[in-house]
Amino acid sequence: MRGKARVLLLAATCVIPTACITGFRHPLGSIEEAFVEPNLVGSWACSSEDDPTPSALKIVDFDGKQYYVESADGKGEPARLRGLGHRIEDIAFLSIGDLGKKDDEWVFLAYALSDADHLSFRVVDATPFEDVVDDPASVKQRLAEQMQDPEVVVSLLSCTRAKPQG
């Protein structure tokens, strides 16, 4: 359980504002291979089991291949991130990197839309990949082998589409 809490904390520091601490040096694929999921685009209210207070998550189609992601918890400046969508088998992932950092560091989030208004994220624990972190093909292969393991891909956030105010 201690490992899960650490992963949740590290991932939450990226997806929910503040500094982004990660363990991956490359996204899951190139920009050319990336896709944008139209149903992912929009404003979301997200919470975790550890923190039921909703945070705002805004996902924008930046250029048809990349996302601009903004995450705010109402305490300070929002986190400004970039996202790349890739699939491994039938699981969709976002590789999330901080726009403000020169050296790219990435968090991998598996996501699922249960319907148009409900989204869930699971975070990939970087620990089992430490020996292959410099080899993107090996990271992707190992993730394909372990993505059903709840110790490797850990529940993170549940989101509901934010209703327009007005």
Account of the protein in words:
There is one protein chain. The chain is of the alpha+beta class. The chain has one domain. Helices cover 15% and strands 39% of the residues. The protein has two helices and eight strands. The chain has an eight-stranded antiparallel beta barrel with strand order 1-2-3-4-5-6-7-8. The longest helix is centred in the N-terminal third of the chain and has 14 residues, at 2-15. The protein is globular. It starts with a helix and ends in a 5-residue tail after the last strand. The model is unreliable at 1-21 (pLDDT under 50).
Largest sheet: 8 strands, antiparallel, barrel
Q: Overall mean pLDDT score?
A: 85
Low-confidence segments, ≥5 residues, pLDDT <50?
1-21
Radius of gyration: 15 Å
Layout of secondary structure:
Layout: H1 2-15, E1 42-47, E2 55-61, E3 66-72, E4 79-88, E5 91-98, E6 106-115, E7 118-124, H2 136-146, E8 153-161
Antiparallel strand pairs: 1-2, 1-8, 2-3, 3-4, 4-5, 5-6, 6-7, 7-8
Key attributes of the depicted protein:
disordered N terminus, 8 strands, alpha+beta, 166 residues, eight-stranded antiparallel β-barrel
